[in-house]
Amino acid sequence: MKKRFALLFDLRRCNGCYACHVACKAEHNIPLGVFRIRVNTFEYGGYPSVKKVFIPTICAQSGDSSPILKSCTDGSIVLDGNGIVKKNPERPSYNTKVINRIIDSDPYGGVFLHPYDRCVDFCDFCSSTRNVVADEMPACVTTCNTGAIYFGNINDPESSISRYIKKWDGRVWKGEEVKVSRLKENELPGVNVLYIGLKKEMEEVIGGYRQFDPTFLEVHRWREKGR
Ligand code: SF4
Ligand code: SF4
Q1: I need a labelling partner for 217 at 20 to 30 A (CA). Which of 2, 35, 142, 156 fits?
Q2: Ligand 1: which residue has its CA nearest to atom 4?
Q3: Alpha carbon 31 to chain centroid distance?
């Protein structure tokens, strides 16, 4: 069966330590202010039961449905033989129109203009620096201390990500059914970034391209119905 690589965040295990974010910057030489992976912070509920949840977000990696792949007209973004969307090192684009079109097409806010090389940049599952298709893990996965990130071929039932999904999807945990889901899955087909513990309200405040102040930790609040 054709391989399909995916990355899964289990939000129940994420403690917002930013280690994945720092490891990614070190691996790919990403400066302050722009991110291949962002750790978004959400608070909800009211005193005395306030809760905080951290949601790491990256490029949706939606294979041949990828909007950034479709909007790239000069071959600077390609789909590799393993279905991973990545930059074409042989054809970097410095064309402002193409760059703006690519960035505007991205509903996840995962693609940005790299301030050093002036080309677009985004998460490629570390396929440009590691042999991830042969079981080497991406930098964020090996760095996460809580075991909140899983990566691998979801079409292989023996991969660690498939086994983790099989273990949890549909199981009842702390009185709630665990569901593996995708951000904005109704808007974008083929997304290969999965979550456990995602709430609908989170989708409303994530996505859309914005420049970020590196010192500003965005905190979004919402109230759960009935609390
Ligand atoms: S390293 Fe793991 S625990 Fe820390 S912010 Fe990233 S996903 Fe969450
Ligand atoms: S898979 Fe690699 S490029 Fe993507 S967020 Fe993790 S460390 Fe960064």
Answers
A1: 142
A2: 17
A3: 18
Residue 55 within a domain: yes
Q: How far is CA 108 from CA 37, 136, 205, 218, in A?
A: 11, 26, 11, 16
User: 10 Å Cβ neighbour count for 76?
Assistant: 20
Q: Determine the structural domain holding residue 145 and report its residue range.
A: 5-60+124-222
pLDDT at residue 117 in the model: 85
Does a structural domain hold residue 227? no
Domain assignment present for 168: yes
Most confident of 8-22, 45-59, 95-109: 8-22
Q: Is 139 near ligand 2, meaning CB less than 6 Å away?
A: yes
State the total domains in the chain: 1
Task: Convert the pLDDT of each residue in 135-168 to its tens digit.
Answer: 899 999 999 999 999 999 999 999 999 999 999 9
Residue 212: per-residue pLDDT? 46
CATH number of the domain at 11, please. 3.30.70.20
Q: Is the CB of 149 under 6 A from ligand 1?
A: yes
CA of residue 27 to ligand 1 center, whole Å: 16
102: closest CA among 65, 80, 70? Answer: 70
Q: Is the CB of 139 under 6 A from ligand 1?
A: no
81 within a domain of the structure (yes/no): no
Based on C-alpha coordinates, what's the Rg of the chain? Answer: 17
Tell me, what's the pLDDT at 94? 86
Q: What was the pLDDT predicted at 205?
A: 65
